[in-house]
């Protein structure tokens, strides 16, 4: 608290990101990063960009990157917006497209940045409860609203909503913006990008942080109708004209072009996930079906917080959420390499063997 703070700052409750420990030698399965680094083509593009030209401002509109993303998704350049991580893209979407008279809707268990943006921009919201099985039920969203936002697959549950359900939501909600946050879609859910041409109220956001192994570069994007994209550009150019530096633009462009590397690392993560799920079930864990690069899991006899602490003593970091209460018994485990997941399963087996 300080008398120098603006009224807005007094009222904020900022997002708390997962820990980035300074120690090495940890099995880090807490922030959904990709266990495989970026491909060689990305590293080469970054090295080529580390040059005298860094004294010059970058392209303010990241034209080449937007074009490459448009080609990847089979849309026009006018349908693509890019930002400094999809968190920035989402923030602009809240500001530009979700601030109207009625409250916006999002799930009660979801990405915890959404209520933070609402606090920052003064947007009213209503949380819609997930089902007992932690699923989004589209019927619960069919009511007047100022907009709708949810991740697909949802975080931190990992559960995916089928594309026909998303289309049903769009059909019955023609008058406010629907943002589908597809941060994890490449690990096994169906993308709604193909619906953008038919539904002018649909904005789909993606990140290069997870499936494209570039959390450290900070690049995300949105695909939507040109009018929605123009709104995002208007906010961007009222905030920061150069959200992506030269390195970010070059690395992200190479990452979008290197499909083979991207597809192979996604396949590896998915196959490790399937093995991890089976191993956890063998140990008596209950695991929610995941279409993401993490799983939400609990053991009937152990508390999520306690297990997280015991794993930490063994240098394995996973994420535990105290709130909402419904997910407090769970741990969210990022899919690592096969070796990292084997270490996790070994440690859990060891913990379960100890007398309670
Ligand atoms: C990781 C994540 C993001 C943000 O990704 P960045 O591009 O790294 O900012 C957005 N939404 C969800 C649901 C995420 O888990």
From TrEMBL:
Q: Does the record's keyword annotation contain Coiled coil?
A: no
Q: GO: which molecular function terms?
A: histidinol-phosphate transaminase activity; pyridoxal phosphate binding
Q: Which InterPro entries would you find in this protein's record?
A: Aminotrans_II_pyridoxalP_BS, Aminotransferase_I/II_large, HisP_aminotrans, PyrdxlP-dep_Trfase, PyrdxlP-dep_Trfase_major, PyrdxlP-dep_Trfase_small
CDD domains attached to this UniProt entry: AAT_like
> Which family would the database say this protein is a member of?
Belongs to the class-II pyridoxal-phosphate-dependent aminotransferase family. Histidinol-phosphate aminotransferase subfamily.
* Cofactor dependence: pyridoxal 5'-phosphate
> Partners and quaternary state?
Homodimer.
The record ties this protein, via Pfam families, to:
Aminotran_1_2
Protein name per UniProt: Histidinol-phosphate aminotransferase
The UniProt entry, under HAMAP family, shows: HisC_aminotrans_2
Q: Is Signal among the key words of this record? A: no
Q: Which residues carry this modification: N6-(pyridoxal phosphate)lysine?
A: 210
Q: Tell me the GO BP annotations in alphabetical order.
A: L-histidine biosynthetic process
Question: What Enzyme Commission number(s) appear in the record?
Answer: 2.6.1.9
User: What is its pathway?
Assistant: Amino-acid biosynthesis; L-histidine biosynthesis; L-histidine from 5-phospho-alpha-D-ribose 1-diphosphate: step 7/9
